[in-house]
């Protein structure tokens, strides 16, 4: 089961007060419902591919409307051919919609009839219903964090934006071919949204994976940094040893001033050491900057020898 499916399954177990049940159902019906005519009767269908969500819609429709909906199952003909569950109201549809708080447009799509929920708990419930109806969230172990709700109309997207702004989430909205997508891409914002809608187990799992990924990334950065420093040290040591060998072959190390001959001998004895370790071998008489300066002097001497130029005194 995907992380999104687990999250929705958890949300269908959240207990609701009567006002919150109506707010959650209002979102579910608004985003997944449609009114149409069947055999001369007005019918309300609320569809979902998630069986736990279908069960939630059914029980809450019964509780809010005090009517008995039907449940139909059909198989999608495209892509994964998942089951589609339709919770259908065939009697007193107008009365049911009035109790839920939705109204039908000319095309059969639904919208909240009495505005957004007023109470804070009902706002959370509405957002929970919106996620159950249209939401998805990436597994926290994937390469990126992403939570989105896909809706038909810009007005619906803006309603979600307004409700989430109370919690300082401020999701973005983009236009897609079949509607609008309200989305969050920051891990902390997704965690906060899961908290708002009551998905606390999903939140804990998301945080556990996010923290583990953060620690792993930090370790990788440290390892990469250490590896880069090691490669830098090795490259410098190899270059210095080549310089020292050239000087030894062309003029002899005994021709060098004492302080340069000292570091040349030291590098040959400790080819793997970094500058700090070489300084310690010298009893910290020379700083890293001073030691680096001496190696640069050796490189200058080697350059003169390669060019056939005379080598004068070097400080």
How would you describe what is shown here?
With 315 residues, the protein is an alpha+beta fold. The protein has helices at residues 3-11, 18-32, 51-65, 93-100, 120-134, 154-165, 187-197, 200-250, 258-269, 275-281, 288-306, and strands at 33-38, 41-48, 70-75, 83-89, 102-104, 110-112, 135-137, 147-151, 172-176, 179-184. The strands form three sheets. The protein has a four-stranded antiparallel β-sheet. A four-stranded antiparallel β-sheet has the order 7-8-10-9. A two-stranded antiparallel ribbon has the order 5-6. A hairpin with a 2-residue loop joins strand 1 (33-38) and strand 2 (41-48). Helix 2 crosses helix 3 and helix 2 (18-32) runs parallel beside helix 5. The protein starts with a helix and ends in a 9-residue tail after the last helix. The model has no long low-confidence stretch (mean pLDDT 87).
Proportion of helical residues: 55-70%
Any idea what the radius of gyration is? Answer: 35 Å
Helix segment count?
11
Count of distinct strands: 10
Give the low-confidence spans: none
Order of helices and strands: HHEEHEEHEEHEEHEEHHHHH
Shape: rod-shaped
Strand order of the largest sheet: 1-2-4-3
> Which structural category do the helix and sheet elements fall into?
alpha+beta
What percent of residues are in strands? 15-25%
In round numbers, the mean pLDDT is 87
Distance between the termini: 72 Å
How many strands, what sense, and barrel or not for the largest sheet? 4 strands, antiparallel
């Amino acid at each position: 089961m995907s992380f999104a499916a687990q999250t929705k399954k958890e949300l269908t177990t959240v207990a609701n007060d009567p006002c919150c049940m109506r707010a959650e159902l209002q979102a579910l019906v608004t985003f997944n419902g449609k009114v149409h005519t069947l055999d001369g009767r007005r019918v309300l269908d609320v569809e979902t591919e998630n069986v736990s969500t279908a069960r939630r819609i059914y029980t809450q429709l019964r509780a809010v409307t005090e009517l008995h909906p039907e449940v139909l199952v059909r198989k999608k003909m495209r892509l994964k051919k998942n089951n589609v569950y339709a919770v259908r109201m065939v009697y007193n549809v107008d009365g049911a919609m009035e109790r839920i708080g939705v109204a039908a447009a000319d095309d059969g799509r639904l919208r909240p009839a009495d505005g957004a929920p007023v109470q804070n708990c009902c706002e959370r419930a509405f957002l929970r219903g919106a996620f159950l109806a249209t939401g998805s969230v990436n597994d926290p172990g994937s390469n990126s964090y992403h939570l989105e709700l896909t809706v038909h109309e810009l007005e619906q997207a803006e309603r979600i934006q307004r409700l989430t702004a109370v919690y300082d989430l401020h999701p973005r909205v983009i236009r897609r071919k079949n509607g609008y997508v309200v989305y969050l891409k920051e891990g902390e914002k997704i965690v906060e949204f899961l908290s708002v809608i009551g998905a606390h187990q999903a939140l804990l799992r998301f945080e556990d994976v996010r923290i583990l990924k953060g620690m792993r990334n930090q370790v990788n950065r440290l390892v990469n940094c250490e590896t880069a420093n090691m490669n830098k040290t090795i490259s410098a040591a190899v270059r210095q040893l080549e310089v020292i060998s050239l000087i030894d072959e062309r003029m002899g190390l005994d021709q060098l001033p004492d302080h340069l001959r000292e570091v040349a001998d030291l590098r040959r004895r400790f080819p793997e050491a970094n500058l700090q370790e070489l300084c310690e071998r010298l009893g910290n008489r020379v700083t890293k900057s001073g030691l680096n300066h001496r190696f640069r002097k050796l490189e200058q001497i080697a350059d003169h020898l390669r060019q056939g130029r005379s080598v004068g005194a070097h400080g």
